[in-house]
Amino acid sequence: MSINQLANDWNQLKKKLETQFGQGIDLAIVLFLIGVQESGQGFREFNQTEKLHLVQIGTSCLLSQWGYFTKSETQENGFPVWIKNTTHPNLTKIQEDLLLKEASINYFKEINYFNI
Prior knowledge:
By secondary structure, this protein is mainly alpha-helical. It has one domain (3-110). Helix content is 57%, strand content 9%. It is built from 4 helices and 2 strands. A hairpin with a 5-residue loop joins β1 (69-74) and β2.
């Protein structure tokens, strides 16, 4: 996906999410929403530790598309456990953000939430 196409699709996804969840959608909120979906927790009140854990779940889920993480088990609280693949090179923050945005777009397309 080209940088221009990624930027366009990302902005369209953000606008769609903002119609449902309100203004101020950013990558961290998208990762949180994916983490909630993947954990099967549903919408409820989360404490700060749980919110951070859900963002990590969203990140791991998305980066697993490129083999950076592998899902290993599910904890008693329903949160999945992801193992980092240490054979992959570390990503810069910019590389990670671009991959996460592209993967987020693909994720929401796959669950039929977002179509372009």
